[in-house]
Amino acid sequence: MDFVSNVPIYIQVINDIKHEIALGILQPGMKLLSARDMAIKYSINPNTANRIYQELETEGICYTKRGVGTFITEEEEKLKNIRKEMADELLLDFIRGMKKLKFSKQELLDIVNQRFEECEDEKLC
Amino acid sequence: MDFVSNVPIYIQVINDIKHEIALGILQPGMKLLSARDMAIKYSINPNTANRIYQELETEGICYTKRGVGTFITEEEEKLKNIRKEMADELLLDFIRGMKKLKFSKQELLDIVNQRFEECEDEKLC
Amino acid sequence: MDFVSNVPIYIQVINDIKHEIALGILQPGMKLLSARDMAIKYSINPNTANRIYQELETEGICYTKRGVGTFITEEEEKLKNIRKEMADELLLDFIRGMKKLKFSKQELLDIVNQRFEECEDEKLC
Amino acid sequence: MDFVSNVPIYIQVINDIKHEIALGILQPGMKLLSARDMAIKYSINPNTANRIYQELETEGICYTKRGVGTFITEEEEKLKNIRKEMADELLLDFIRGMKKLKFSKQELLDIVNQRFEECEDEKLC
DNA sequence: GTGGTCTAGACCACT
DNA sequence: GTGGTCTAGACCACC
Question: What's this model's pTM, rounded to 2 decimal places?
Answer without folding.
Answer: 0.90
